[in-house]
Specification:
- The protein is mainly alpha-helical.
- The protein has helices at about 5-45, 50-60, 70-80, 80-110, 120-150, 155-165, 170-200, 205-215, 225-240, 250-255, 265-285, 295-309.
- It has twelve helices and no strands.
- Helix 5 runs antiparallel to helix 6 (about 155-165).
- The longest helix has about 40 residues, at about 5-45.
């Protein structure tokens, strides 16, 4: 067990780190959402190929047309490369901020519970840095492939697919991105569970954090659900700056684990409090005097008269 001096020093270090990270946490949440909007809206504006357009060459008897129906889409990506790379850069900065937020939470949790899963920190650190790099690298790779297609002379279906998805750079970015996001997701979920166990974050923040981690790995819903990660980062900024509603969790100031009571424990506490109220009231009540029955008093008087006679 750490001594009182060690606890005091740890709390002071955590306080300084929290103050430094509060504003970056706010900024990271904003940049994360902004990057998602930029990339999603830019790609949504790209020309798409419908089912009829895609089948037109085959219906005309041309199995491999000289110009792919997706040529306009590839050229659009090439022309908007700067915007997409800028969006990826903003996402990379946001992931760096997310990694720093999680590392502080991890260090504070490990001090209060040294036996927590030891692989959580390397997963968060390695996964967070890798995801940040891939966020930029994926957009750069896509831009290079699209530019090579746009300035070249091969506009076939195979060339268009290679520029959009099957090119070496795109495939490498996809595989690295999958490994990196998986590592970050596992590390973030482990952090949420451990931090909740020692009482550094409230239960609903732990749930939102785990949901945000899953959305990093499986980005369903487009930019609409990116608000979950942004919201979690902003709320962590509020916690770090010391402005948490109804006061911050006591485990921060105590420097030791202060687990949140489970639902069953809270229910038992409410039940015991309700059952103690009637007994307390009964203890303070004055008992009513016990009066003898009228029939018993009259029989006692008759026996006394008979004895005197």
């Amino acid at each position: 067990m750490p001594s009182t001096g060690e606890i005091r020093e740890q709390v002071a270090i955590e306080t300084r780190r929290r103050q430094k990270l509060a504003v970056p946490a706010f900024g990271g949440g904003f940049l994360y959402l902004l990057s998602a909007i930029i990339i999603t809206e830019t790609l949504n504006a790209a020309p798409t190929v419908g089912l009829v357009q895609g089948l037109t060459p085959a219906l005309s008897g041309v199995a491999n047309p000289a110009v792919s129906p997706r040529t306009a889409e590839v050229k659009f990506v090439s022309h908007h490369a700067f915007t997409l790379i800028a969006g990826g850069t903003l996402a990379a900065i946001a992931f760096v901020m997310l990694t720093l937020i999680l590392l502080l939470l991890l260090d504070a949790t490990r001090f209060r519970r040294p036996e927590m899963w030891r692989y959580a920190r390397p997963l968060v650190l390695g996964g967070g840095i890798a995801v940040a790099i891939v966020s930029i690298g994926r957009q750069v790779a896509s831009a290079l492939e699209a530019h090579s297609f746009a300035v070249g002379h091969d506009f076939s279906i195979h060339a268009a697919e290679r520029a959009l998805s099957t090119g070496t750079a795109n495939v490498l970015a996809d595989y690295l991105g999958l490994i990196a996001t998986l590592a970050l997701t596992v590390g973030m979920i482990a952090t949420m569970l451990a931090a909740l166990r020692v009482g550094l974050i409230v239960r609903w923040m732990s749930i939102v954090g785990m949901f945000a981690a899953v959305l990093i790995l499986i980005p369903i819903g487009g930019s609409e659900l990116e608000v979950v990660q942004a919201f979690w980062m902003v709320m962590m900024g509020i916690l770090y700056i010391g402005k948490w509603p109804n006061g911050e969790p006591p485990a921060w100031a105590a420097g030791e684990a202060r687990p949140w009571p489970s639902q069953a424990a809270r229910s038992r506490g409410r039940a015991s409090g309700a059952s103690s109220t009637p007994s307390a009231a009964g203890a303070g009540a004055v008992p009513a005097p016990v009066l003898p029955a009228a029939g018993a008093s009259s029989r006692k008087r008759r026996r006394k008269r008979g004895g005197r006679g």
